Amino acid sequence: MSGLLKRPLGKLSGGQRRRIDIARALLHKPKILILDEPTTGLDPQTRRMVWNCIGRLRRETGLTVFLTTHYMEEAAEADYVVILDGGRVAASDTPVGLKNAYASDFIRVYEKTPALAELIAREGLAAEERRDYTLIEVPSVAEAKRLLLTCPDAFPDFEVEKGKMDDVFLKVTGKRLEGGKDA
Q1: DSSP character at residue 77
Q2: By CB neighbour count within 10 A (0-12 exposed, 13-18 middle, 19+ buried), where does 107 fall?
Q3: Helices (H), ranges, 67-113
Q4: What are the start-end ranges of the H helices in 62-113?
Q5: Each residue's pLDDT tens digit, 20-30
Q6: What is the DSSP letter of 66?
Q7: Which pTM was predicted?
C-alpha cells in the first residue's frame, strides 16, 4: 500500500479505493466495524485479501463486523445471518442452521450407471441430468449417506454438496433467479 500514498485518489482502482476506505475506518480502532457491500465490484484476489485482513482483525482484536451484502458466499462465513426481505426479518440463524432449515443438499454423480437410474426411479428422487454429471437433490446429508450406503454401485464417482446460502436466500424470500419475482 506504500506505493499508493502519493497517488491521487482519483487515479486509484476501485479495489485500491475500497482498501483505503476500510483502512480509514480502522484507524481509530473501533470495537464495531459496519461494512455496507464492502467487496462489490472487486476481483476475487482483492476480495479474498480484504476478507483475510478483516478475519485477522476479528481474531486478534475481537472486532465485531456488521455486514450488509448480496454476496451470499460472504454471508456463509459470518457467525450469524439475518435475511431481510421487504424491510422485514425473513429468517435468522447461523449459516449452518439456515442451510439445514431451508436448503436441500445434493449428490453430484459423475458416472452414470444402470444402478443409478434404478435407484432414482425406485426412490423417486429429484434428479437433473447435466452435461457431465447427474445432480440428485436430497433433503439432508443423512439422506445422502443412507443412499450411498444402501446402493454403493450407483455412486462410482460422486461428491456430496451441502446446500448454499444462495439457495437459502431464494427459498426464504420466495424469489426466483429470473428477475426476482415471487415464486
Answers
A1: T
A2: buried
A3: 72-75, 95-102
A4: 72-75, 95-102
A5: 787 888 888 89
A6: E
A7: 0.74
